Structures are given as structure tokens and as C-alpha cells.
Amino acid sequence: xxxxxxxxxxxxxxxxxxxxxxxxxxxxxxxxxxxxxxxxxxxxxxxxxxxxxxxxxxxxxxxxxxxxxxxxxxxxxxxxxxxxxxxxxxxxxxxxxxxxxxxxxxxxxxxxxxxxxxxxxxxxxxxxxxxxxxxxxxxxxxx
Length: 143
Ligand code: ZN
Known about the structure:
The chain is mainly beta.
């Protein structure tokens, strides 16, 4: 197990625009404030969502489109860098009008209805993602 000590930096609250892309809004906010390592939480609702499930044996993501209004029951994510660019990685549990839950890795294309994002900057660390042969994922290198 690898680990690294980090310090909490600034904290921000963001309210993405109606119909904006959820992950795109987080990346935009991070860039605006010069943040390249952080974690965040989000609550609210989406107009529609695109999530993914990682098929471990095939090392491929399976896409799931949810074309209906959904509650964001819980969403957690982090900010790092992938190929030098700011990258947001997030997972969420989303619920439909009957309270049925869906969950997964958030993809681009999650359209915001209303959302409250709390972002916590992390200092003294770089979250550069590198390809990991074992899992087929781009994981933190923590070097
Ligand atoms: Zn993920």
C-alpha cells in the first residue's frame, strides 16, 4: 500500500449552472482557482446522467445512460491530472422518482438541474494519473 501525507488547503462551494456538465463544471472551477489536487462532494439533482461500470475482467468501461431526472444522493470525487490536464474522477449514487438507485463512475454528459459542490483543496501533493497494467486504469502515481 502506498500512502502520502497531504494538508488541507482552501475550501470552495460551487453552484454549477443549470444544464451545465457536472464534471466539466468541477474542472472549470478547479482551473479558475489554480487547484490541481482536491476532493469534492456534491448533492443536488441531474436532468440526465451518464455513468459507467468498469468490467474488471475485460478492463473496459460499460456505459449506462439515464435519460430521466435524478437525485444526486451522494457524489464523491477527486481532482488530479491525467496526461498533464486537470481531471475530475467521481462516483455517485443517483435515484429516480421511485427512489430506485443507480450508481457508478460519472462520465461526461451529466446535465445539472441544481447542484451544490463543496471542494477541498489538498496541498503538498500531486495527483498525477498513470496507466496501471494490473487494473487497466489510470491511477494516482503518488510519487
Ligand atoms: Zn471511477
